[in-house]
Design brief:
Length: 187
């Protein structure tokens, strides 16, 4: 079953229908498919694709997935009985054109624009993956660390100002989403 509103596709697949909190902002051009859960005040920006036909994708409250990002997961496989769901916590910033695949982003993680996070990779709370970086399979960015490059490597620890900047970014996107939601509704 396909539902379209303002060029948004919400597609049930394999008996799973996306569950989207009523306060979440889903921008025109988005495609949300299968076993997807999106939390309160989250924002999924223009032309994102979130596809969960072989496992689940969870996006927490006040998290933003910026324009053109793609989120997917992997199903069960030999040696990995649960597969690789994509689990994104609360207050997470995901930049433009990011690829998230079978990874875990803890609360308040930051993924810079045009980055890739692969199966089994983890970004802990208040940690940052720099723009254009590739976090390869199974790598873990510890709390308050900055990693950059392709493949990504540790660069430095984040100071209080950097962590506060990320938190301000979350608040900005929650408010900005409300303005875009109002504009999309009146269009």
């Amino acid at each position: 079953m396909i539902h379209a509103r303002n060029d948004i596709s919400i597609i049930s697949l394999n008996g799973k229908t996306p569950q989207i909190h009523e306060s979440a902002f889903i921008a025109p051009g988005c495609r949300i498919i299968g076993d997807v859960t999106i939390g309160a005040d989250a924002s999924i920006w223009y032309n994102c694709v979130i596809r969960a036909e072989v496992n689940r994708v969870v996006i927490g409250a006040c998290t933003n997935i910026q324009d053109g990002s793609i989120i997917h997961c992997d199903g069960p496989m030999p040696g990995v009985e649960d597969g690789f769901p994509t689990i994104i916590g609360d207050d997470v910033l995901v930049g433009h054109n990011v690829m998230l695949h079978g990874c875990i982003l803890h609360d308040r993680a930051f993924v810079g624009l045009s980055s890739t996070v692969m199966n089994g990779a983890v970004i802990e709370s208040d940690a940052m993956l720099a723009a254009g970086a590739m976090l390869t399979q199974g790598k873990r960015i510890a709390t308050r660390q900055l990693w950059a490059g392709s493949p990504a490597r540790f660069v430095r620890d984040l100071d209080d100002a950097a962590v506060m900047g990320m938190r301000l970014g979350v608040a900005h996107y929650v408010e900005n989403a409300k303005a875009h939601a109002a504009a999309a509704t009146s269009a």
